[in-house]
Amino acid sequence: MTFRLMIVKYKMVQFIFLLVIHTFILAQISVGGDAELRFGESKNNYNFSEILLNMNITNDDLATWFQFEYSDPPELGLNMNGLRKFRVDYTSGPLELSVGDIYKIWGRGLILNQFDDQNVNLDNGYRGLSFGLIDDGYALNFISGLSNIARISTDFYKNIDPEGRKPNHSVNHSLFGGDLEFFRERLNIALSFLQSRESHPMNNPLTLEVDTLNIVHRTHGLRGGYEGTSISGYVEYANKLTLLPELNINNIYQDYFNPHNGFSLFANVNYYFSMPPFDGWSMTMEYKNYNTTKINPDERNNFVKNYDMNLIYTQPPTAIREHSSVLLARLIPQVNFSDEVGYQLSLVGPVSNLGYFTLNYQAASRTSLWEKEYSDSINAVLSSKWASDSSVTMMPYTSDVSFPYNELYIEMEGYIKNLRYQLGLAWTNNITEYHALYNSGQNGIWDIQEPFTDNNDNGAWDDGESYTDYYSIVNERLENKYQNAFTIPTILTYKLRDGWSIDLKYEFQSLQKGTSYTYSLSSDEVFTDLDGDGVWDAAEEFADLDGDGVWDDAEENWYYWWLNGWIPDDQLSNYDTNGNGVYDPGEQFTDLDDDGVWDDAEEFTDLDGDGVWDDAEEFDDLNLDDVWTVNGVYVDSNKTSFYVLDNETDQKFSEEFQNNHMITLGLGKSPYWSISLTVESSSAYEYGPQLVSITNPMEKFIGNFIDLDNKWIALDMMININENTRLDIMYGTLRGGIICSNGICRYVEPFDDGFKLSLTSVF
After folding, report:
1. Which residues, other chains included, contact 271 with Cβ-Cβ below 8 Å and sequence gap of 6+?
2. Is the per-residue pLDDT at 553 higher than 60?
3. Quick one: how many helices (H) and strands (E) in the chain?
4. Which domains does the chain have, with CATH numbers?
5. What is the residue-wise DSSP string for 209-220?
6. Cα separations (Å) of 720 from 15, 37, 84, 727, 729?
7. What percent of the chain has pLDDT above 70?
8. Which of 1-5, 468-472, 619-623, 655-659 has the highest mean pLDDT?
9. Which of 111, 281, 302, 358 has the highest CB neighbour count under 10 A?
10. Is pLDDT above 60 for 710?
């Protein structure tokens, strides 16, 4: 769809709605709504065009809402042309009745929290009925309906979108539940129940086709809150049980299904100080323990296979600070609402006349510690099963296998005359992935309990007797992907006369990102035992007399032959010409180098005391450290994710840190317009596919002043056409990266040499 066609379509829809509005005005019915047009086009084909129209019609006790979408394609999601959502609400006294597309939240969302978030393309509402009674002392709500929730998953075989923009996994839920809440002065308590019958698409592990499993989820909840003058608190608990009434005939899904009678717990306490010198200060403590299932590190994000994990219409509090800073927002982890324990502490208060100080610390991890299962058998080439403890932890772990996350954030904001400032400091640490591998191999030596052929019937294994060399676990390999960052976000806004203002935003981030490897050997690395001493021998030092780099053994002579029984005693005189019983130079020998002179053995350091010079015996370098490693030795190494590029040689050099900068300069006149220029840069590249940026005219001009290597530049303009209509235009290149909303994260593709347009109108 061309931009001109979109404008025509928008004008047509606007005309229709204006006509409808005029008709309802004559009928004394209140009509309102809003319309948003969004368009984007870039040189890397990240294109989208969509119109979203909302219309509200109210008349006394009756209210209606209609939402239309025209997208081809949308920025995220599937194409849509026509009516997307509708709802009719009736209110009369304590009675509330709704029919259509409904979004509900009970308490803090441990059982039910529904919303339509276009930023991450998550719509977890339902279409059906909602019945409510609200009085001064209580609130009663019953819901019933159908929910179709579409998500993006690379773990689902069908219709995978290479751009990651279109959902390919759709789950149907049949919902029924109720919520009863009582109010009494400063105290409230509530009870909740919700049942879902789910139709879950699943990969058949035998046929690689798609099956649909019927699953039942039942959740019960209890919550309560208190609002005092200096202290307030809230706690909510929910218990979840998932049942699989029907299994495949071959029980092929039984290994995937681990019914877990799990729970979710959230609590927060707010305290307001009223005594000097902390008058006006407040402290907030949040705690979460979401333990609704047990998912191993390899499968923690696989909601296709782990169909007993957290329900998508259940979205409890994240207990994580969501930053407005772009660089900090990219570090926010995906909250695992099925398996996460953590807390957040925040202290906020005024500091003299300088402004407000904020101290925030947050930490989280999975609720279980995991270990790889392995067995000492001939078939134990690679282990893939995990085992976890069944305990319930109350505080986050620090072990890498639990994906620990923590962040300390400090901020000061306020006004100094006409200058508004905001200065932050953040230290962020996160383990994003964890893998454990156990490799098996033969150790090349006889071990106790290994069967052997007892040639001499002495009941013990003797050197030379054949045996079965069992496989044994010889190598443990642990690896994790980490990211550590120090970030400084700053905002400066200076107000001039007549609504004019100048904005400066600067963000600096020192990012450390890579993969950490740890090797632990449970037996010696396998080696070729050249001298049969049962010990791996390094290359013993020797005096290289002939300078050939090779140790030379003594050339064979008659004495060596006689000792080995190759010369009979009656013939010894033919070799020992002087009869002294010792080999003398000139007597018969094997002249290996044809120099006519017998060569003695070069001197060497006999490390193992076997009287024989030993070369470096070959070995299996399991941990890839080029050094033979003995049982139980740990070897650690790190591989950074960053590199710098030598443009002359095209050679890559690893770099431990990536320094990121983002600066935005803005000028505006309130409330009419504003314009800003954003330049983002990085000191190092990240290994992997790189976006080939196309230099646009704006970048060519700016390139006269700064080096454009590894930089992203964008120009934004905002115009308030009138008090109800706003136009936003962006031109340039955007880096892309992770964005999160309500604990749900997605990756935004880079946007190269293009423009975006957004037109919003309220009527």
Report:
1. 230, 231, 282, 283, 284
2. no
3. 4, 34
4. 3-364+391-438+480-516 (2.40.160)
5. -EEEEEEEEEEE
6. 21, 15, 28, 6, 12
7. 74
8. 655-659
9. 111
10. yes
